[in-house]
Write a structure and sequence with these properties.
With 203 residues, this protein is mostly helical. The protein has six helices and three strands; from the N terminus they run βββαααααα. It has helices at 67-102, 106-129, 133-147, 151-159, 161-173, 189-199, and strands at 22-26, 32-40, 43-47. It has a three-stranded antiparallel beta sheet, with no helix packed on it. Strand 2 and strand 3 form a beta hairpin. Helix 1 packs across helix 6 and helix 4 packs antiparallel against helix 5. It is extended, with a radius of gyration of 23 Å. Residues 1-31 have low confidence and may be disordered.
């Protein structure tokens, strides 16, 4: 049985070396940048590779009566409601991985998963049933954000391909997709912006 790895966040102090075609330069803020000397048509120029970013503007409050701003406020409301459940999924997944690693046989693992599902269903059934389809779609994306795995893949790994396909079929009936991936630099840039505000305690 395949286990999902626990994500480790490593805080590393920057180390830079001046070697060959690279030069170490300290910024005003005290952080290190690695500058590469790149040959452009016979002219050697220093370059710093940067990631592509998506700039997303929040709707102005003056337009509160407009539908655009109402959609934005609704998105904030829905994210604040479902984001805690995505965090629960991340925490529970870590717990499941640890517990299953302690079990020795497939039979023990299956019994553990069956009991775990029963407990989760009992604890969260009411909350899940009260979610709207829109909130369910958001939760699917946030699960991918928090676990680095789509809901489809999680079900497939823990319950098998048939079960995953069954629930994918149910989801598609309601216009959802368990294979949806979270894209913080593209289609989900505004969601990411709101989540960062939530995490910072600004919303």
């Amino acid at each position: 049985m395949k286990f999902f790895p626990v994500i480790l966040i490593l805080l590393l102090a920057p180390k830079l070396w001046a070697q060959n075609d690279t030069v170490s330069v300290d910024s005003i803020a005290g952080r290190g940048y690695l500058i590469q000397n790149v040959d452009r048509n016979g002219v050697v120029m220093p370059e710093v590779p940067i990631k592509e970013v998506t700039v997303v503007g929040r709707p102005a409050k003056e337009s509160a009566r407009r539908s655009e701003y109402r959609k934005y406020e609704r998105l904030i409301y829905n994210l604040r409601k479902v984001y805690p459940y995505a965090l629960v999924v991340r925490q529970k997944l870590s717990q499941v991985n640890y517990e299953m690693e302690q079990l020795k046989t497939d039979r023990e693992r299956k019994e553990y998963i069956r009991k775990f599902e029963k407990d989760i269903f009992k604890a969260y059934e009411g909350d899940m049933r009260n979610m709207t389809i829109t909130q369910g779609k958001l939760l699917i994306k946030l699960i991918d954000r928090e676990t680095q795995n789509t809901s489809f893949n999680l079900i497939k790994e823990y319950r098998g391909g048939f079960t995953a396909a069954f629930w994918q079929g149910i989801a598609r009936i309601f216009g959802a997709n368990l294979k949806d991936e979270y894209d913080p630099y593209g289609n989900d840039a505004l969601i990411e912006l709101i989540l960062l505000d939530i995490e910072a305690g600004n919303l």
